[in-house]
Amino acid sequence: MAEILAIKPAAVEGPVVTQLDKGVLRLTLANPPANALSLAVMAALTAELERAKADKAVRVIVLSAAGKVFCAGHDLKEMTARRTDADHGKTFFAETFAACATLMQAIVRHPLPVIAEVDGLATAAGLQLVASCDLAIASHEATFCTPGVNIGLFCSTPMVALSRNVSRKHAMEMLLTGETIDAATAKEFGLVNRVVPREYLNQIVTKYAQTIASKSSLVVKTGKEAFYAQAEMGLADAYAYTGRIMVENMLARDAEEGIGAFIGKRKPEWKDE
What we know:
Structural class: alpha/beta
Radius of gyration: 20 Å
Order of helices and strands: EEEHEEHHEEHEEHHEHEHHHH
Number of strands: 11
Helix content: 40-55%
Strand content: 15-25%
Distance between the termini: 13 Å
Oligomer: single chain
Largest sheet: 7 strands, mixed
Shape: globular
C-alpha cells in the first residue's frame, strides 16, 4: 500500500523536479522566474506524466511550481526568436501549440488524479494547465488571467480548458478583458476547488492527495475516465455508458471487497483489481 512506501529523493535535474512520498508524486515546475511552458518544459512534464503511468507506487499526482509565479504560459521570448525562420516561425508555433495540446490532454486522460497546487500567478497556458487538472487548490495570493487579448494573441487554446471549467459568461469575461482575477473570484467562477492560506497550502494539498491515494486505484481510474467521457456525451448516451461502467465496476474485486467491508463495518483491503 502507498502508506508504507519510502520517500524517494527529489530529482533535481531538468525543468521539472519530481518527488514521490506515500503514493503521491509531486511534479514541481522549476524553470524560473516565470516557469514558462517552453518546448523543453512541456516535453519534460509530458514525459513525467507518461512515466507515472507505469509506476505502481504512484497513486496521485500533484503539480506545483517553485518561485513566485506558478506558470506564466508559453515562452514568448522563445517563440519570438523563431520569427527569423524562413517561414516566420509558423512551423515552430504549430509545434509549440501541438505540444501544449498533447500535455493538457495527457493530464485529462491520465489514469491517475492530477491536483494543481497554485501559489502565485497562473496566466494564459499556465491557467490552461490549472484548468486541465482534476482538482485545483490555491493560496490566497494566487491570481489568474488569460491576457492574450492585451498583446494581440487571443488565448484560444487556453480557452478550451477554461470553458470546460467555468460558465461561458465567466470564460468570455476573462478572455475578452484579459484582466487578472484573484483566488476568491477563481473559486467563485469554479476554476479552483479551495482557497487556503499560503502557509497551509502544501499541507492541505497533501491531505487531499493522500486521501485519494488511500482509495482503490482501479476504482479511481475507472471513475476519472468515465467522468470525462460522459461529459462529452448527450444525456441518454451518458446514462447508457455510465450504466455499463457501473456494471463492470460492480464485478471488480475491489467493489466486492469495499461493499463487504461497509456491510461488515471494517476497513477494506484494496487489491486494485
